[in-house]
Write a structure and sequence with these properties.
Its EC number is 4.2.1.24. By secondary structure, the chain is an alpha/beta fold. About 40% of the residues lie in helices and about 15% in strands. The chain has one domain: Alpha-Beta Barrel (TIM Barrel), CATH 3.20.20.70. The longest helix has 18 residues, at about 150-170.
């Protein structure tokens, strides 16, 4: 028999990586990560009123919705198999004040939406945020006193807000404010109120990022913001600090951890999953979404392909799920097979 050994066989030791890539069936058989509808959490924006679907200019394809329209949209999400939604309010400017007191109104927009959605679509999870930025007149996530975001007073308030959100039917509290001690305080507050079954998804590593711009337009806080959020968000330069922050949240009782933003912080996703083993999520934030949408609208990229690729990358980086404004679009695509 003629020896057909090639120089490449000698160089590689007869190990050829392309053997497993040679056909569609082999590529499918050895694929390491897959994106499914179970990986998706859909963030939605709420506005007061009824019958309102208000497109957000900075986020093509994303709308602010009144509660009744949000209920209809969430029904579709549930029918597509999306496990959970996350709600964010754009409340009236006249209700915003220095302390974000509207966050403590039992019938505020967030709680009304939670109650309505839970009644109409009981089989979908509802994740709510207790950060004060949608409710403050200065756009900060906490209470502003003499130019300083006061930590402990803010924590006291967000604990009260968390209990009210749980009372309204929230399944998971996801505090994005980055105040010290908030996870433990919320856990104690929820348990004292009899909400032992309500989970906490910690924004364990929320970075002081430029990727949030379109979101701030969506909830109308961008023009309100006085100063910056560098005194409580994590610097994009600091990975070890982010791990220390996440470790404290784990010790305080977080059930799940989140990295925000997502794509520029895949290394943090991996490090957190490896370090703690808790369910780990990434938030593909508004700036990430808008970049893809804008480039696709200009014909510069294949939007659908990049949409799916970026979400799959989160899975490869160790994430158990992704909060993404693409969720409904992706769920429809996955349903078609």
């Amino acid at each position: 028999m003629t020896d057909k050994t090639h120089l490449v066989d000698e160089i590689t030791g007869h190990r050829r990586m392309r053997r497993n890539r040679k056909a569609d069936w082999t590529r499918r058989m050895v694929q390491e990560n897959r994106l499914t509808v179970d990986d998706l959490i859909w963030p939605i924006f709420l506005v007061p009123g009824t019958g309102i679907i208000d497109p957000i200019a900075a986020m093509p394809g994303v709308n602010r919705m009144s509660v009744d329209k949000a209920v209809e949209a969430v029904k579709e999400a549930a029918d597509l198999g999306i496990p959970a939604i996350a709600t964010f309010p754009d409340i009236e400017m006249e209700l915003r004040d220095e302390t974000g007191s509207q966050s403590l109104a039992a019938d505020n927009l967030v709680n009304r939406a939670t109650a309505a959605i839970k009644k109409a679509v009981p089989n979908i999870g509802i994740i709510t945020d207790v950060a004060l930025d949608p409710f403050t007149s200065h756009g900060h996530d906490g209470i502003l006193r003499d130019g300083v975001i006061v930590n402990d007073e803010t924590v006291d308030q967000i604990v009260r807000a968390a209990v009210m959100q749980a009372d309204a039917g929230a399944d998971i509290i996801a505090p994005s404010d980055m105040m010290d001690g908030r996870i433990g305080a919320i856990r104690r507050g929820l348990d004292a109120a009899g909400h032992q079954d309500v989970g906490i998804m910690s924004y364990a590593t929320k970075f002081a990022s430029g990727f949030y711009g379109p979101y701030r337009e969506a909830i109308n806080t961008g023009g309100l913001l006085k100063g910056d959020k560098n005194s409580y968000y994590i610097s994009p330069a600091n990975g070890t600090e982010a791990l220390r922050d996440a470790a404290l949240d784990v010790e305080e009782g977080a059930d799940m951890l989140m990295v925000k933003p997502g794509l520029a912080y895949l290394d943090i996703c991996w490090r957190i999953k490896e370090a703690f083993g808790l369910p780990t999520f990434a938030y593909q934030v508004s700036g990430e979404y808008t970049q893809i949408k804008a480039a696709a609208m200009n014909g510069w990229i294949d939007g659908n392909r990049i949409m799916m690729e970026t979400l799959l990358c989160f899975k490869r980086a160790g994430c158990d799920g992704i909060l993404s404004y693409f969720s409904l679009e992706v769920a429809r695509k996955l349903a078609k097979g």
